[in-house]
Structure formats: structure tokens, C-alpha cells
Amino acid sequence: MSVRVGVLGATGAVGQRLIQLLDPHPEFEIAALTASESSAGKTYREAAKWRVDAPIPTDVAEIEVGATKPEAVPDDVDLIFSSLPSSVGQQVEPEFCEAGYVVSSNSSNGRMDEDVPLTIPEVNADHVDLIEVQRDERGWDGALLKNPNCSTITMVPALEALDRAFDLTDVRVSTLQAVSGAGYSGVSSMEIIDNAIPHIGGEEQKMETESRKLLGSFDGAEVQLHDMDVAASCNRIPTLDGHLENVWADTAEDVSAEDAAEAMEAVTGVDLHSSPDQLIKVFEEPDRPQPRLDRNTEGGMGVAVGGFRETTDGVQFNCLAHNTMRGAAGASILNGELLNKRGYL
Ligand SMILES: NC(=O)c1ccc[n+]([C@@H]2O[C@H](COP(=O)([O-])OP(=O)(O)OC[C@H]3O[C@@H](n4cnc5c(N)ncnc54)[C@H](OP(=O)(O)O)[C@@H]3O)[C@@H](O)[C@H]2O)c1
């Protein structure tokens, strides 16, 4: 039987990707959509300025958008996907959890809270059981699970492969991030055309902290952050989708460029519907991956890497992922599949 799901922030850039992926999903059935007060009461077709490069699902288009509060969502909804601005998520996500809903959230609020699991199922699925601690501490029947920031998700699967084989000590990363990462009203065309913006507010800190939580160890009570040092520099560029990142990874063990590529190529997906068979695609061509050519690797759920070079203390490489698919909507759905499989719904 399918799980009835609701989507908070359903009209936004990530919300629309959630609808695109959920409509044909074999485990989930869309039962409720919410957005801001200005969208509430309209049909989804009227409220969402549909910008996905696939038709709006006809059955979803006629659903009435509700206000973003627990009372507006039917009780028989088992799972909520949240793609709200973090200031809104901060306030309403706990209200949904308190009301008994399990929330798989893409918003940045609460990701580093000690009792909130932050997961990429192929990397640290075991951290989901932090929900038991969360429920004890907060007295919730519901639960809150987070996926990381889109720029963090892009590099972490590759880092995990290196860490497992060669022990990471230091990571330096510089990003080239697509405009869709800022949401529909995030960056104006006058700002970004013929330009690059060497600042994305709060993004560096997210990459530096979330990556250490994802690669940290969970002992059943708490997550110990990985002790590697991570420093990031984030840039917005005029691509539409797909974040490209240049990574310098220092390791305790010796690693060659070939070793690093082999370790990443060996990473498989997990037994969840949205996880690709091969998580990391390795390119041998030095000028790949590229956003326009490679963002749809494995239906947008894969990570593409290339450009391996040995450095004094490790390796340098480039990585790329689709920021609204693997980096946002697809990541939340994959976490929803994990919650379902682990019996949290
Ligand atoms: N875009 C990405 O690649 C990406 C990647 C990772 C994480 N994220 C995170 O995902 C979240 C959503 O991002 P986005 O790019 O989809 O943003 P967006 O395009 O601006 O969409 C925001 C959504 O939230 C709704 N909303 C805004 N204010 C609200 C309020 N006061 N009450 C209830 N609903 C409200 C909007 O509804 P209306 O249409 O009615 O205004 C819309 O549905 C953010 O936290 C962002 O940081 C985004």
C-alpha cells in the first residue's frame, strides 16, 4: 500500500522537483500540498509557476494548495516533505513533528542540532536511528530528518570513498554553483548574466560543518563529528542546474590519482528506489564533468567526478551533482524511502 505524503513549500524550485519525482513514485502518493498564504486556496496549477522541463502532472495540478500548518494537512498523511525557506521551516517543522508527522526536510534549519539526523542513505544510513534519541528528548510522536545542503551532498559521497580507504585529514573546496540553488526569486538576471558572484551567504559554513557530521560516527546516543578540517569557498555562476566543485583532499595514507578514482568508482547505491546502481561516475576526460553535459548522470541522482591529480598530501579532483535533484528533492525523497524501510512511518 502506498504511503500518503504531503509537501510543504510545494510551489518553489525544490517543491516542483518534489512533485515531479513523487507523482510517478511507486511507494508514495501525494495527498497534500502547502505553500505561503498567497498561494493557499488556489489550485496547484494556479499557484505554482511550473518551470520544470517536463509537463505538470495533471492530477496534481488540480489539488488545492493549503496553508502551511498541521491543521491544514489530513491526519492520514504519514510522511511530510519540507522545502520551505529555513526561517519558515525553523518555526513550522517542529509543529508538524509535535502533531505526530514524520518530516523529511531539505531546509537548512536544525541540520546541526545534536538530536537531528542528517543523512545521505548511501553514506550514513545508520544515523537515522538518532530519531530514537530525538523522540525521547522532545517527546514527539513524529520525527525530523534532514538532508544536507546541495553543495555538501555533491562532494561528500566522493569524500566518504576516500576516507574509508585513505583517512581524510584536510579538505579544501571551491564551488561553481548554479542559479537554481538560490530558488526562483534568489538571483536576478541583472546580477548573474555575464558575471560570477564570489559569495553565497552561509554556504561555506554549511559545507564545513555538515560534511563532518555526515562522515562522523554514531554510537546509538550521539554523532561524533569527523575530525578532518574542511574549508570552503562558494561562488555563484550563470549555469541553470548542477553544482561543480574543485576539491583538494589530504589523506593520512598515501593515495595516487588512480587509487582515488578506483575507490570512488567502486561505490554502489543502496537498496532504495531512488538510489542509483552506481553512485559515482568517474570520467577519464580531464575536462569532465561539466554542468550542462553531466548533471543528469543516473537521472540526476548520481555524482560525477574527474580531473584527478596527485598533490603533496593527497589528491585534487572535480565533482558535480544536480542541485535540485540529488542535492535537494531527490535527497529528501531518498531519505523518505529510508524512513519507510526502517519502519519509522
Ligand atoms: N534550490 C536548491 O537547489 C536547494 C538545494 C538545497 C536546499 N535548498 C533549500 O530548500 C528550501 C526551498 O528552496 P527553494 O529553492 O525551493 O525556494 P523557493 O523557490 O523560494 O520556494 C519556497 C517555497 O516556500 C514557500 N513559502 C515561502 N514563504 C512561506 C511562508 N511564510 N509560509 C509558508 N510557505 C512559504 C513558497 O510558497 P509561495 O510560492 O506561495 O511563495 C514556496 O513554495 C530552502 O530552505 C533552500 O535553502 C534549496
UniProtKB/TrEMBL annotation:
Residues 4-131 form the Semialdehyde dehydrogenase NAD-binding domain. InterPro entries: ASADH-related, Asp_semi-ald_DH_pep-lack, NAD(P)-bd_dom_sf, Semialdehyde_DH_NAD-bd, Semialdhyde_DH_dimer_dom. One of its GO terms (biological process) is methionine biosynthetic process. SUPFAM superfamilies: Glyceraldehyde-3-phosphate dehydrogenase-like, C-terminal domain (SSF55347), NAD(P)-binding Rossmann-fold domains (SSF51735). Keywords: NADP, Oxidoreductase. GO terms for molecular function: aspartate-semialdehyde dehydrogenase activity; NAD binding; NADP binding; protein dimerization activity. The active site is at 150 (acyl-thioester intermediate), 243 (proton acceptor). The keyword Oxidoreductase applies. The keyword Electron transport does not apply. Its EC number is 1.2.1.11. Pfam families: Semialdhyde_dh, Semialdhyde_dhC. Belongs to the aspartate-semialdehyde dehydrogenase family. This is Aspartate-semialdehyde dehydrogenase. It comes from Haloarcula salinisoli. The lineage of its organism: Archaea, Methanobacteriati, Methanobacteriota, Stenosarchaea group, Halobacteria.
